[in-house]
């Protein structure tokens, strides 16, 4: 990890606020400093999955840790990963790699989002926010995501062109995928051979 503003990374003035510091989430207190990862350092944070993230047009990752504002009998920690991608379409692509189809969404969040036990994610503009809280309840994670969404820059989710071509009849909500590059295709299914389907050209 490299501290914000160090050599080879944007200065504090150039870096969007959400990538520098994030506070003001009701019921939670940020612990420690933000950890910043660029392309070179991503391999040290994501064990075995960095190649796919890079394939989608990764720019930067900011990692935050939170604890409940009020001490609880059983310690809890919530980890927030904010991925800054090269475009809204690239962000949606990375977000879609985690979709299985039929995930729940949290009410009140306008951007595309999903929530499942211990985790949640949303995509807004060129940012993907991933929330990890294995010890947290679904309500705690959902309310955290709802409070986070207005702090993420952008006007909503950018879905790549062509997704509107999918037939609505029988479509499982949240089951769509935007695959970019041969590694993402292979990760999705061994039947998506890159040359045949054209993923090698992405």
Our measurement of the CA-to-CA distance between the termini, rounded to an integer number of angstroms, reads: 29 Å
Strand content: 15-25%
Radius of gyration: 17 Å
User: What is the element string, with H for helices and E for strands?
Assistant: HEHHEEHEEEHHH
How many H/I helical runs? 7
Q: Specify the biggest β-sheet.
A: 6 strands, antiparallel
- Strands of the widest sheet, in order across it, are 1-2-3-6-5-4
Q: Which residue ranges are poorly predicted, with pLDDT under 50 across at least 5 consecutive positions?
A: 1-13
The average pLDDT value, as a whole number, equals 79
Rough outline = globular
What is the SS-derived class?
alpha+beta
Helix fraction bin: 10-25%
State the assembly state of the protein chains: single chain
Q: Can you lay out the helices and strands and say which pair or pack?
A:
Elements: H1 17-20, E1 28-37, H2 42-45, H3 50-55, E2 58-68, E3 78-85, H4 88-96, E4 112-116, E5 119-124, E6 127-132, H5 138-148, H6 182-188, H7 194-197
Describe this structure as you would to a colleague.
This protein is α+β, with helices and mostly antiparallel strands and 202 residues long. It is 22% helix and 23% strand. The chain is built from seven helices and six strands. It has helices at 17-20, 42-45, 50-55, 88-96, 138-148, 182-188, 194-197, and strands spanning 28-37, 58-68, 78-85, 112-116, 119-124, 127-132. A six-stranded antiparallel sheet has the order 1-2-3-6-5-4. The longest helix has 11 residues, at 138-148. The two termini are 29 Å apart.
What is the compact description of this entry?
By secondary structure, this protein is an alpha+beta fold. Helix content is 22%, strand content 23%.
């Amino acid at each position: 990890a490299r501290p914000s503003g160090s050599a080879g990374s944007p200065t504090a003035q150039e870096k969007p606020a959400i990538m520098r510091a994030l506070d003001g989430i009701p019921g939670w207190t940020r612990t420690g400093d933000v950890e910043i990862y660029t392309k070179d350092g991503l391999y040290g944070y994501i064990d075995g999955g960095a190649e796919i993230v890079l394939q989608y047009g990764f720019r930067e990752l900011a990692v935050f840790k939170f604890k409940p504002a009020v001490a609880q009998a059983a310690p809890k920690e919530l980890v927030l990963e904010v991925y800054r991608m090269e475009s809204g379409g690239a962000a949606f692509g990375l977000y879609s790699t985690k979709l299985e189809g039929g995930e729940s969404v949290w009410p009140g969040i306008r951007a595309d989002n999903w929530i499942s036990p211990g985790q949640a994610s949303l995509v807004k503009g060129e940012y993907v926010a991933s929330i990890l809280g294995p010890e947290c309840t679904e309500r705690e994670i959902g309310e955290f995501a709802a409070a986070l969404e207005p702090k993420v820059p952008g006007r909503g989710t950018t879905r790549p062109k062509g997704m509107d071509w999918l037939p609505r009849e029988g479509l499982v909500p949240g089951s769509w995928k935007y695959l970019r590059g041969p590694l993402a295709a292979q990760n999705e299914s061994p039947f998506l051979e890159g040359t045949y389907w054209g993923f090698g050209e992405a």
